[in-house]
Amino acid sequence: MSKPALLSLHQALRKSFQSLENNQKIWSSVLADCSPLMVSLGNLAEQSRALSNVQISNTPLRDFPDLEEGLRFKLLQATDTVLVKLNEKMSSLQSVRDSISNQVSAVLQLYEQNTDSLDLLTVTERSATAPSLSDMLEWLQDAERHYRQQFLRRKTLLQTLRADDLSLLEAAPKRWKSLESPNAEDRITDTLCKVSFFIESQ
Amino acid sequence: MEGQSGDVIVTPANRKCSAVTGSARKIKDNAADWHNLMMRWDKLNEEGFNVAGNIVNIKLTRSQSDQLLLVDESSSSSSAGLQQGGGAELQDECCKLQDVINKMVAVVTKMERLMTSQRGIRDLEEFQFGPEGRKFPLFLTWNTKHFEEASRVLLDSFRQELRLKQSILQELAHTATSDLCMVYLSCWLHQPFTPPHTRLTLEALLLETGHRPL
């Protein structure tokens, strides 16, 4: 009686893990694209800082009256370009997060619809090749939470940046790097290994 | 047979292009030259930036070793040797930067020639059609004064930029503070005297003369 429900739930889980695998790859490649952008953001902040520290009228550049204004404008413009690019990357991260969240909530919904026909034994039973339903659902939720939090933290960091606040810009690359959580990423990779036989079955 | 197939290649656009003569031909060629010279400038700028970066690096490592020298007198002989090596390297890089700037001077000289030619065309038009110039525009909407104006905007930015780069060359290797070095480098890279307006002017020039499709 519970057979069809179990089968369709397995099918949905397979699909979710496959999509998780693809999305994990996209996520890390987008993040890899972000790091050079963060580096150049830090560089530009450093240049602006140097410009503020130097009194142009006391240097050999005093013959160029419009220099400071022009250079500051150019630096701001370059900073702006980098921030625009970073925001584009954030949209890619957001679509990864959305795709994972949608998949996971669909699987959970399917499970909840079928709770009556799934007894405790079916939910917790595992075999040599397939982890139990409850484990897999838990792993999916863990992964979903990880990407949701990661996205929010990175988005918040970018939103607090302002082109005219140098200390924030200077600290940004470091803060960006500190958001990395290799443990969580490793756990997701582990999960994908654990379910690899299950994904391949049937 | 071959001559015939050669004829086929002449598209309407090509024919129209080859039909452009006189002032229009000259202005169109000048616009193309502006584009090419600015591309060349960008390439030189990049080349020069790498050299300038090297100079600053050598300079900063040397000032660090100078400080070490003050702290530790005993190892002075080896440090002096290292310093001399750094000196030769520094001289080398400065020569390279001088080369780049010489090439930039050549670019700006060519730009000045373009400006002269543009002024000549305006004078000619005034002679031919009176002080208001010709009644119908040569291309889309611009009259000859517009072209001269655009050339002047471009020339002015690059003249300023060249002057700035010459000052940077003079000072870069004699600068002790890292902040000022950084300012020189970012001046070189970001070119404060060529605002976005300069690029727009070039694009407008190319659009008007038909190098860029409408």
UniProtKB/TrEMBL annotation, chain A:
It holds the Pfam family CA109-like. One of its GO terms (cellular component) is nucleus. This is Uncharacterized protein.
Automatic annotation (TrEMBL), chain B:
It comes from the Eukaryota. InterPro entries: Cyclin-dep_Kinase_2_interact. This is Cyclin-dependent kinase 2-interacting protein. It comes from Dicentrarchus labrax.
